[in-house]
Design goal:
CATH topology of the largest domain: Rossmann fold
Number of strands: 11
Number of domains: 3
Order of helices and strands: EHEHEHEHEHEHEHEHHHEEEHHHHH
CATH superfamily of the largest domain: NAD(P)-binding Rossmann-like Domain
Strand order of the largest sheet: 4-3-2-1-5-6-7
Number of helices: 15
Structural class: alpha/beta
CATH class of the largest domain: Alpha Beta
Strand content: 15-25%
Distance between the termini: 59 Å
């Protein structure tokens, strides 16, 4: 049996909770599990429950105003662990002594902890695609290793990118014709475009196949999530974005396909359950018996549907390709503007089409910085946040 030493950034979110379920499943099979650090944003009560169960060395709450409340929840465990808060605490967790850092943070907040974990020589299981969208060159540069046969220091947890990683295997990129990411199409795949202005947050949060957090669910409704995944795949696998396509697959059973130069395609199939790619990232390069979740019964699938995405219906796809083609700080601006616009939509301050409208307006005003360092990326994101807020206020 194997030993897994893990720190989880964002342990109370959907990915973090799924990761802990996977660890419990592996533990029941006899594997040795040590959780060294857990971090959450504001969900102090759930974080305290997780800390009591796993007894990490470090517990972090993102909102510094809540650290005393966390301490009250865990008063009887005083002296057994360290409590920390804010970005400094999360960065400390990212540098912790765990073999694997699971980054399940939401949005651009995941960039700096990813950088810190890689700088500390840690292996990162990445569910935070924004770290690569915003700082792909920086992050992948830190993740590279010259050790022959070494375990990758950056393992994708997104179902689509885990699927691509598995299908690509040891094939060099010279053998790859293109990568195909699948998309469910979200809840509005067949909704008339003229009805988009009346879409409510409640409707947009009803994803047809996946149970995810609020922000990523809205991104799936606009297909922004899929555009961001194109950028993520570009950095993870070194394939030009021109050779990365999207195909709508409503059943969410096929997670990605690799087309090779000889015309052969390899597709990855599994049930739509994030616990499967999480376990694969944790146990790689070995495959362990499934610890939680269900197996796919191929004989019961029936027919599967594939179709091209409607770029006119979902302009976020074009915005993402435009941002990565521009390069520099533009993807950071795209991502930050999207985060602000999604929050405004959920607060009913912005109509559904206004999400991409806001991003378009912010991108049009940005002067790209080429070859950005971490400070440049952070500054570009901050500028985009403020610019998007002003734009939304002006539109109200």
């Amino acid at each position: 049996m194997s030993t897994y030493s893990v720190a989880i950034l964002g342990s109370t979110g959907s990915i973090g909770r799924s990761a802990l379920e996977v660890l419990e499943g592996l533990q029941r099979q006899g594997h040795q599990i040590q959780v060294t650090a857990l971090s959450a944003g504001r969900n102090v009560a759930l974080l305290a429950e997780q800390v009591r169960h796993w007894r990490p060395e470090l517990a972090v709450v993102g909102d510094p105003r809540l650290v005393s409340e966390l301490g009250e929840h865990l008063a009887d465990l005083a002296g057994e662990m360290t409590l920390a808060a804010g970005t400094a605490g999360i960065e400390t967790a990212a540098r912790s002594g765990a073999d694997i850092i699971i980054n399940a943070l939401v949005g651009a907040s995941g960039l700096v902890p990813t950088v810190r974990a890689l700088e500390a020589g840690r292996r990162v299981a990445l569910a935070n695609k924004e770290a690569l969208v915003v700082g792909g060159d920086l992050v992948t540069g830190l993740a590279r290793t010259d050790e022959k046969g070494a375990v990758p220091r950056l393992m994708p947890i997104d179902s689509e990118h885990s699927a691509l990683f598995q299908a690509l295997g040891a094939h060099p990129d010279t053998e790859v014709e293109r990568l195909l990411l699948t998309a469910s199409g979200g809840p509005f795949r067949d909704t008339p475009v003229e009805a988009f202005a009346t879409i409510t947050p409640e409707q947009a949060l009803q994803h047809p196949t996946w149970n995810m957090g609020r922000k990523i669910t809205i991104d799936s409704a606009t297909l922004m999530n899929k555009g961001l995944e194109v950028i993520e795949a570009h950095w993870l696998f070194g394939i030009p974005v021109e050779r990365i396509g999207i195909v709508v697959h409503p059943q969410s059973i096929c997670h990605s396909l690799v087309e090779f130069v000889d015309g052969n395609l390899l597709a990855h199939f599994s049930v739509p359950d994030m616990r499967l790619p999480i376990q694969y990232a944790l146990t790689y390069p070995e495959r362990q018996t499934i610890s939680v979740g269900a197996r796919l019964k191929v004989e019961e699938l029936g027919s599967l549907q594939f179709e091209p995405p409607d770029s006119d219906r979902f302009p976020a796809l074009g915005l993402c390709r435009e941002a990565v083609a521009e390069g520099g700080t533009m993807p950071a601006v795209l991502n930050a503007a999207n985060e602000v616009a999604v929050a405004a939509f959920l607060d009913r301050r912005l109509a559904f089409p206004g999400i991409t409208g806001t991003i378009r307006a912010v991108m049009d005003r940005h002067r790209t910085v080429d070859g950005p360092d971490l400070d440049d990326l952070i500054a570009a994101g901050a500028w985009a946040v403020e610019t998007a807020r002003v734009h939304i206020t002006d539109e109200e």
